[in-house]
Amino acid sequence: MGIAQDITQQPIIYRVVDLVKEYRMGEVTVAALRGITLDVREGEFLVILGHSGSGKSTLLNIMGGLDTPTSGQVFYCDQELTGYTERQLTEYRRHHIGFVFQFYNLMPSLTARENVEMATEISEHPLDPAEALGLVGLQSREDHFPSQLSGGEQQRVAIARAVAKGPHILLCDEPTGALDVATGKIVLQVLADVNVRTRTTLVVITHNAVIGELADRVVRMQDGHVVEIKVNAARKNVDQVEW
Amino acid sequence: MISPLTKKTLRTLYRNRGQVLAVAAVVLCGTACYIALSSCHRNLMLTRDTYYAENRFADFEIQLERAPESVLFRVQEIPGVRQVRGRITEEVKLEAPGLDEAKTGRIVSMPETRRSVINNVVLTQGRYFDTGAVNEVILSERFAQANGLGIGESLYATIDGRKHTLKIVGLGASPEYVYIIRSMTSLVPEPERFAILWVPEKFAEDAKNMQAACNNIVGTLDDPESAERVLDAAADLLKPYGVYAKTSREHQVSNRFISDEIKGLGVQARVLPTIFLGVAALVIFIVLNRMVRNERTQIGLLKAYGHGNLTIALHYMQYALAQSLIGAAGGFIVGQWLASGMIRLYVRFYTFPILRARMYPDVLVESMGIAVFFSLLGAVLAAYRAARIHPAESMRPGAPQRGRRTFFERYPALWRRLSFTWKMIVRNVSRNGFRAGLNVFVVMISTAQLIVGFYAIDAITYVIDFQYKMTQRQDATVSLFFERGKDALLETARLPHVREVEPLLQYPFEMRNGWHKKDAVIVGMSREGNLQRLLDTEDRPVDVGESGLVLSSALARSLHVGAGDEVELKPLMGKVTKEKRVPVSRVVEQYFGMSGYMNIEALSRVLDEPYTMNAVLVRTDRGTASSLHDEVKDVPVVASVELREDALKNLQDTLATSMRIMGVTSIVFAGVIAFSIIYNVTMVSLGERERELASLRVLGFTQREVGAILFNENFLTGALGVLLGIPAGMAMVWGMMHAFDMELFRFPFYIAPRTYVISTALTVTFIVFANLAVRWKINRLDMVETLKSRD
Ligand SMILES: Nc1ncnc2c1ncn2[C@@H]1O[C@H](COP(=O)(O)OP(=O)(O)OP(=O)(O)O)[C@@H](O)[C@H]1O
Ligand SMILES: [Mg+2]
Question: A57 alpha carbon to ligand 2 midpoint, in Å?
Fold first, then answer.
């Protein structure tokens, strides 16, 4: 599947300016982010690469409104997130953000479909839960409980749940981290499809440099800095890469 | 050196301090109850026994018309009798310069010189009679204090229509008047309104014209068990002298009240702490089981490092123990404080010149012991499970939580309509049935406990209302020394402000049906009566009829008679001694006592009189009842005037504090139990579902929405608990009513509608408080931290 759009022409959805995050632990201060500046464009597929401890999750969490920075600003559609109250951040997550984590965090007491419905119940422009499950190829399993699904299937339900809210941005922190290669590929394919079909901005954190080839751009982080931003001329398809 | 495991315990205790304190609070209530009730129980028992022994409380008492003193020797010779004493006792009307109204009292004759006699008087102030002095009196202390009477002042006592002057030389108390009550229908003791006057024998003999005679015999026995046999023998012996009443110590009114109270305290001292500590054990059970499941891997690791099973088990026991010790320590202080408060409350009802209030080290040790026992009971299963964990197995992740279809899903139409919050709640409740069940149970107990607590207040209020608003509607009761004819009614009716009068004749009888015998009062009332009415427990007026006898059901039961049967009546007073047979026309349920009722004309005929009364009931113009006192002050035949308003006020004053205490205690008890359990269970739930809830927050659920998942579950179980609690409360009330179905008094089955509302509202408040405490924790849920790792 070739990607026709030119990402650099898309409007900016995120502007991250001089973002610093420090953790104070008694005497010592650990800096997780040491001045990140970054733009994210609408509809793009962005991959963040970096060694363990380089600050990827910290950045994603702040962008997603789960955490607040020590200094610096994050603008989302020209709104300054960094000044938001807890309540506003919740509202922001509710209507704009979809998260996918390494661990699926489904509600064990709800079926796949109910897990998705849970998200659609609170959103303004939700997808039909069945449609969302269709996107991840799990219609037939909608009445199963998480404990009756494999890890990959659970992760796909988690993606369906995130997507079903109809978010503007999908933030994924190592979505394939707990999966084997084959399953990981399926999951990535699902994410890429969603990005294309629903024009949802997709940010994926990974350790795996190969995954970067699927994206429009790759941000490489090290020690709390952005050290490189690579623009891919063309996005590759999942079955075109090997890892 | 503190061992690392102990350090872990301390740290866990600190981290879970909210939960720990909630458990400790329940243990505190349990131990405090135990200490307070047991100490009070022992103090009262010790006080009573010391008081009785030091002042030689009689084993039996016989009230008679008049007997020569010589007969005492013959009573003395009845086998089993140790010692006897003849006395003169008599109801009197009392006046004093300081009193604004006449009061009633009882004179009790005492030897001229101070000796240790049966039913001795304890001097709390002043002195005993001077040798040769006649007109001296030792007055009951509570009465003197309440009425501003002091040593050196004078009293006027009207005995058999003659007024005598008595000088107060001392204040005192006696073991036979611990619970001072004027009549069996009084709801509360009246030491301030009813005086006991201990007078020199000589005075009593002159006043009653009973030289070398007596009308009351008290005695001690070698073996208190033989009381009934001795009393029967004595009654036979004394027959010619007109025996009115014979009472063993067991049935002596004052002793009966105090001993019932002590017995009740003893029961409560066991029941209440068991409830609290049982609840604490349950909470500990739930919290520790959860903790052991959480710490599986840690436990495995510890074992891999060489810690023995016992060490691990003890580690968890230690955690439970620490909570109960914190609670018990608080219980020590609160318990002591409560004990002293309770004794002070008791002294309002019971008159003890000496008070043995001690601290009982063994009670403290016992309370500690039971607190420890219950906490270990709660911990033992978790500790056992911890000890059984296999190091290698523990490293593997535990079985995943399974979702399961519930009963409700068989109705898809219904199920689909539920929001996912409720779906989660329903599934969670069905998965953690035990915990949800515990919540339901605890709310049920809490509601029931509140209903029972408030019921006590409702019942008392109801009975007061019943007694003073529906049954006795007169503003004043004028009691007479002798039976009088219709003229008494006419004379009273002529007094100023009197609107309505009604006659009343109360007369003691021995009632007999075959070998079933009972002494009781028959109340003769006018059939057209409007002031004093006879009502059954359904509030329906009962017609006394023309001639038959209406019996209270308690009395009918004890005589084994029913409507249509006949009873033999023998007057216990006056000149008529002939027995008469009277048919029982009806049996009515009543709250109070053992009484019979008859048409006053029929009762007069039993006494061989055409129409006689010994009290006149009066309704006056509004607010003028108290002027009656002045009007009848100098009428010798008037023994006393009792105003309804005074009686009501006295009743309410005496009961107000106890009712407040009852109300507050049940609220505190129910609150502590409900809060502690719900809070702990919810915290355990929160601990288990932290991930779930954090990921909901990530999805954009607000704190309130996330909280609702836990809270609505509590409200759901709470609603069920309240629904069950109401019938449970009613059942407990019903049980209590029957447990306390005493001869003298029975509780009405009356729960005010308000009680249900307040109990429900309070229970809901407890749930809300527990939720708020959990909410505090939910608001501090760290999403990033929680979701970082795999659970
Ligand atoms: N709560 C915290 N307290 C202290 N330091 C923290 C905290 N969270 C993160 N850090 C530190 O911040 C730095 C960045 O962490 P972050 O989780 O963003 O790294 P990462 O790039 O996501 O690593 P990984 O690939 O292992 O997930 C790390 O050095 C980490 O130790
Ligand atoms: Mg990370």
Answer: 4
Does B345 share its domain with B440? no
Quote the pLDDT of residue B393.
Answer: 74
Interchain proximity A90–B702, CB inside 8 Å: yes
Instruction: Identify whether residues B684 and B589 lie together within a single domain.
Output: no
Cβ-defined contact of A95 to B404 (cutoff 8 Å):
no
- Structurally, chain A folds into a number of domains equal to 1
B403 contacts on A by Cβ (under 8 Å):
108-111, 145-148
With CA atoms as reference, the chain A residue closest to B704 would be A87
Among A59, A96, A100, A107, the strongest candidate for a mutation testing the B interface, having the largest count of B CBs within 10 A, is A107
Going by the DSSP 8-state scheme, the letter that residue B55 receives in this structure is: T
Percentage, residues of chain B above pLDDT 90:
41
Amino acid A3: pLDDT = 47
pTM of this prediction?
Answer: 0.81
- Domain co-membership, B265 together with B349: yes
Contact residues on chain B for A170, CB-CB shorter than 8 A: none
Q: Report pLDDT for B550.
A: 93
Nearest bound ligand to CA A51?
1
Label residue A95 left, alpha or beta by phi (over 0 means left) and psi (-120 to 50 means alpha). alpha
Task: Please choose from A30, A220, A223 the residue to mutate so as to test ligand 1's pocket, defined by most ligand atoms within 8 A of CB.
Answer: A30
Residue A224 lies in a domain: yes
**Least confident stretch, A109-113, B365-369, B721-725:** A109-113
Q: Three-state SS string across chain A, please?
A: CCCCCCHHHCCEEEEEEEEEEEEEECCEEEEEEEEEEEEEECCCEEEEEECCCCCHHHHHHHHCCCCCCCEEEEEECCEEHHHCCHHHHHHHHHHHEEEECCCCCCCCCCCHHHHHHHHHCCCCCCCCHHHHHHHCCCHHHCCCCHHHCCHHHHHHHHHHHHHHCCCCEEEEECCCCCCCHHHHHHHHHHHHHHHHHHCCEEEEEECCHHHHHHCCEEEEEECCEEEEEEECCCCCCHHHCCC
Residue A27 maps to a domain: no
Co-location of B525 and B581 in the same domain: yes
Tokens of B98: 């300081």
Q: Is residue A119 part of a domain?
A: yes
Is A127 a member of any domain? yes
Q: Note whether B788 and B658 are same-domain residues.
A: yes
Average pLDDT in the B250-273 region? 87
Alpha carbon distance B620, B641 (integer Å): 13
The residue range of the domain holding B500 is: 476-624
A51: CATH: 3.40.50.300
Question: pLDDT grade, residue B219 (50/70/90)?
Answer: very high
Q: Best interface-test mutation with A: which of B405, B429, B689, B695 has the largest number of A CBs within 10 A?
A: B695
Question: What pLDDT does residue A1 have?
Answer: 41
Confidence band for A235, pLDDT divided at 50, 70 and 90: confident
- What is the ipTM score, two decimals? 0.90
Q: Is residue B244 part of a domain?
A: yes
The answer to whether residue B410 sits within a structural domain is: no
* Per-residue pLDDT band at B524 (split at 50, 70, 90): very high
A230: containing domain = 42-67+94-240
| Secondary structure class of B564 (helix, strand, coil) | coil
Structurally, how many domains does chain B consist of? 4
Asked whether residue B618 falls in the same domain as residue B552, the answer is yes
Residue B355 lies in a domain: yes
Q: Which amino acid is at B231?
A: L
- Chain segment B55-95, per-residue pLDDT in tens: 999 999 999 989 999 999 999 999 999 999 999 999 888 88
Q: Please report whether residue B634 resides in a domain.
A: no
Residues B665 and B596 reside in one and the same domain? no
B338-358 confidence digits (pLDDT tens):
888 888 888 878 888 877 778
Q: Are B760 and B687 found together in one domain? A: yes
When CB atoms are compared, the residue of B420, B700, B790 closest to A95 is B700
